[in-house]
């Protein structure tokens, strides 16, 4: 059995999860990556998507996060997430709503930078939506 | 001298007031517990955020984003004053506003400009008379039941937007730090430019020995992290404030209940005396009437 490490998932409102796990897949903004024990220290921003947690007992948990930061250090992985919830409890309608909002943002953006920024956000949300409905 | 009936009415009215204040005290106690829990639950995130920030701030070469290092000036100050939506909580709202006013006078004496952002209905109520022209914006969360990150997010966006427009150079938040039920300390905290001195200290040496990899590069992460940190600090202030408010209301209502009790005691004594006096008078009348026969 693989070594375990400490995984902490915190949202601004509370500590959602703090336990020993064997692997965590994180939707990093530069690409998905999986953290296992003794991973090199890394810090990255996280895009909306599904975090796949494999607990020590081999159980898999899918958690939907909407952006945040991941910090891997020698103690373990800390995920500072914005709005995290178990994947099967995600409010798809709310997500669709935020996609529509993002679409409006793209349409309303005045400067090219703002437009690119909004488009980027929209793409991320759409991708996350696909990831959710595929499961 | 009030008649017996008047006294009876007054006692009844004070009693019902006492019932109300007692109920409010108990409600505040229940809400306080929840507010304290919420504040405690939010702490891990703030702690982690502080250490992540300290870590990354060390890795960035050169100057960070303007939100962190400021505009290089400190001519225009923005005071974000957090208060409650309701009154009846003793000196809670007044003491926060008082602290902000004190700072404002100090800064204005130095020739700086101060603008206000009133958060909560009471801040606006207390400041609109003589500071209306200086209040840049007002926000209230009257219909929000439980303060969460969404509110902090909205408020943070607003502040950052003002900053990007160049409306101010330094932003300070005023709120009441919760110590315990009887002590709440009005506190001023600077959020823009960010004050990183605390976080860097407790991180220690062990963390810095590791070679970190950053993805995307540190600067880009920092750009995303700083606004987030501001919002987290705002959330922290709001949660602390909510706990303080309930604490202040609880002790204010406790006082009120006790005062009402004292008042009832006093009124009851004078009611009893007066009733006795009336009985005595009636007896004297009867006796002297009987003697006259």
From TrEMBL, chain A:
Its main location: membrane. SUPFAM superfamilies: Epsilon subunit of F1F0-ATP synthase N-terminal domain. Residues 114-135 have a biased composition (Basic and acidic residues). Coiled coil: none annotated. It holds the Pfam family ATP-synt_DE_N. Residues 102-135 are annotated as: Disordered. GO terms for cellular component: endomembrane system; plasma membrane; proton-transporting ATP synthase complex. InterPro entries: ATP_synth_F1_dsu/esu (IPR001469), ATP_synth_F1_dsu/esu_N (IPR020546), ATPsynth_dsu/esu_N (IPR036771). This is ATP synthase epsilon chain. GO terms for molecular function: ATP binding; proton-transporting ATP synthase activity, rotational mechanism. It comes from Jiella flava.
UniProtKB/TrEMBL annotation, chain B:
GO terms for molecular function: ATP binding; proton-transporting ATP synthase activity, rotational mechanism. It comes from the Bacteria. It is found in: Cell membrane; Membrane; Thylakoid. Produces ATP from ADP in the presence of a proton gradient across the membrane. The gamma chain is believed to be important in regulating ATPase activity and the flow of protons through the CF(0) complex. F-type ATPases have 2 components, CF(1) - the catalytic core - and CF(0) - the membrane proton channel. CF(1) has five subunits: alpha(3), beta(3), gamma(1), delta(1), epsilon(1). CF(0) has three main subunits: a, b and c. Belongs to the ATPase gamma chain family. This is ATP synthase gamma chain. It comes from Jiella flava.
């Amino acid at each position: 059995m693989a070594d375990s490490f400490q995984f902490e998932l915190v949202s601004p409102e509370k500590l959602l999860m703090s336990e020993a796990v064997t692997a965590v897949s994180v939707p990093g903004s530069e690409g998905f990556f999986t953290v296992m024990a003794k991973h090199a220290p890394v810090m990255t921003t996280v895009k909306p998507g599904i975090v796949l947690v494999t607990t020590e007992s081999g159980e898999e948990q899918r958690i939907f996060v909407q952006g945040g930061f991941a910090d891997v250090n020698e103690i373990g992985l800390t995920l500072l997430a914005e709005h995290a919830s178990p994947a099967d409890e995600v409010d798809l309608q709310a997500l669709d709503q935020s996609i529509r909002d993002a679409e409006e943002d793209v349409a309303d953006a005045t400067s090219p930078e703002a437009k690119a920024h909004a488009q980027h956000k929209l793409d991320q949300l759409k991708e996350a939506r696909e990831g959710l409905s595929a499961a | 001298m009030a008649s017996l009936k008047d006294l009876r009415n007054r006692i009844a009215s004070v009693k019902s007031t006492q019932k109300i204040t007692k109920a409010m005290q108990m409600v505040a106690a229940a809400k306080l517990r929840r507010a304290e829990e919420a504040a405690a639950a939010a702490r891990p995130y703030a702690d982690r955020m502080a250490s992540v920030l300290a870590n990354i701030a060390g890795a960035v070469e050169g100057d960070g984003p303007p939100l962190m290092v400021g505009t290089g000036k400190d001519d225009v100050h923005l005071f974000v004053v957090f208060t409650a939506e309701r009154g009846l909580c003793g000196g809670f709202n007044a003491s926060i506003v008082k602290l902000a006013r004190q700072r404002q006078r100090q800064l204005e004496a130095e020739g700086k400009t101060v603008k206000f952002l009133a958060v909560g209905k009471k801040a606006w109520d207390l400041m609109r008379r003589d500071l209306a022209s200086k209040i840049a914006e007002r926000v209230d969360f009257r219909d929000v039941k439980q303060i969460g990150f969404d509110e902090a997010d909205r408020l943070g966006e607003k502040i950052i937007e003002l900053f990007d427009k160049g409306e101010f150079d330094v932003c300070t938040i005023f709120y009441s730090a919760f110590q315990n039920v009887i002590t709440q300390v009005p506190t001023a905290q600077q959020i823009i430019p960010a004050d990183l001195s605390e976080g860097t200290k407790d991180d220690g040496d062990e963390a810095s020995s590791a070679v970190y990899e950053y993805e995307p590069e540190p600067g880009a992460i920092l750009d995303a992290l700083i606004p987030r940190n501001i919002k987290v600090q705002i959330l922290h202030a709001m949660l602390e404030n909510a706990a303080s408010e309930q604490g202040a209301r609880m002790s204010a209502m406790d006082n009120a209940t006790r005062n009402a009790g004292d008042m009832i005691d006093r009124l009851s004594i004078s009611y009893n005396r007066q009733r006795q006096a009336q009985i005595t008078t009636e007896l004297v009348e009867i006796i002297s009437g009987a003697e006259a026969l």
